Known about the structure:
Elements: H1 3-22, H2 28-34, H3 39-48, H4 51-60, H5 62-79, H6 94-120, H7 127-154, H8 158-180
Helix pairs in contact: 1-3, 1-5, 4-5, 6-7, 6-8, 7-8
Amino acid sequence: xxxxxxxxxxxxxEQHMQQLAAKNINEPHLVIHHMMGYVTDxxxxxxxxxxxxxxxLSHEFPNFYRYAFMMEEAAEAERHKASRSxxxxxRFSEPHKVMATQLLTTAATLERGYQAxxxxxxxxxxxxQLDEMNGLYRQWLVDLEKFKxxxxxxxxxxxxxxxxxxxxxxxxxxLKKLAEVKLG
Length: 184
């Protein structure tokens, strides 16, 4: 990716972090929860940008830096735990990894899309696009249920199913709240 593309991703993160700050959402665990839709963008920057590019982005976008720092701190804290509740849990099969990745990617797209509409305010003329997003959201819910059914049919252990339900349940709840916001 080019620096222009990294700047585009960092700009989106910066803008959403500013929106959260305006709502007085500053605690790291709350910021991380609200910014889950940007994890893939942050990852693209983190693994693709050089050290010099990361430094430039951090100076140009202080809230991007703040989010990246929070995520790094959270990952470091997780790595240093003596044990984690998911230690020893079976891993997804390759087809299930693909399904989970697609669900997460679509969820991130939906979350960012809804947030963009909400950030624009009273925009009734965007109703066709919002209707399209709502259709994508309904399909995401169907795909999520298919994913869970596939895991059960595959014989996934109850611990894995509980984690899937917890993680995707939180995402589904966020999307539901965003989808319920009316424009206009």
